[in-house]
Design a protein that fits this description.
With about 210 residues, the chain is an all-alpha fold. It has a two-stranded parallel ribbon with strand order 1-2. The longest helix has 28 residues. It starts with a strand and ends with a helix.
């Protein structure tokens, strides 16, 4: 099984950019609309009632869509992106527990678990002298050691921030608000954070060809 960085574009990625985007966002959109129209779906497809309430129906469809997107990614793009792959494993495990035990807590804690896992891995790697972010992003751009260290710290803290933010939202707001935040809130926040890092990336970028000529 081949996994690759989310920002390491293969030839297939370059030829199917919209498909790659649809595979990553599709399951989230299905989760949102299934939760929004859960009762309507149960009325049209009575078998879905076996899953439970609207959020459990949405969770079941989310799991199916996630697995389908990973299969299509492997077949069409030729690899499994690291973050969607890890996230997909957690979705299946925690989603199954949510439906089996009829406990919404498991699926709501999924983003907390995933973001904490990434955050701890990045910061923990630095503690052992390894900038794990460099292994993920080095095909997209090259930074000096200090640049990788700073970027890794920022992304590690950001993932932990997302974990805490998810806990605050699901514990203090309605299911619909949490689902909307998961779909429409997390992505813009991540995009903004990524753009804010560009000055750091540009400051610490190195040109391997130029350095090699020297």
């Amino acid at each position: 099984m081949t996994t690759e960085s989310d920002i390491t574009p293969s030839a297939a990625d370059r030829h199917h950019p919209l498909l790659k985007l649809a595979l990553e966002l599709g399951p989230l959109l299905i989760f949102f609309f299934a939760n929004l129209r859960g009762q309507w779906l149960v009325e049209r497809f009575p078998a879905l009632s076996e899953l439970g309430g609207p959020l459990f129906v949405a969770t079941g469809l989310f799991m199916a869509a996630t697995v389908f997107s990973l299969i299509v990614s492997k077949i069409v793009l030729g690899h499994l992106p690291i973050m969607p792959f890890v996230s997909g494993i957690v979705v299946v495990i925690f989603g199954s527990l949510s439906i089996w035990l009829q406990n919404e807590t498991f699926i709501k804690m999924k983003p907390t678990i995933v973001n904490t896992l990434f955050g701890v891995a990045l910061l923990g790697g630095l503690a052992f002298g390894r900038s794990l972010l460099g292994y993920v992003f080095n095909a997209a751009f090259q930074l000096d050691a200090e640049g990788w260290r700073k970027l890794t710290i920022r992304w590690g803290i950001f993932f932990l921030f997302l974990a805490v933010l998810n806990e605050v939202v699901w514990r203090n707001f309605s299911d619909d608000t949490w689902v909307a935040f998961k779909v429409w809130g997390t992505m813009p926040i991540t995009i903004i954070f990524t753009l804010v890092q560009m000055p750091l990336v540009l400051k610490h970028s190195i040109n391997l060809e130029t350095d090699g000529e020297k």
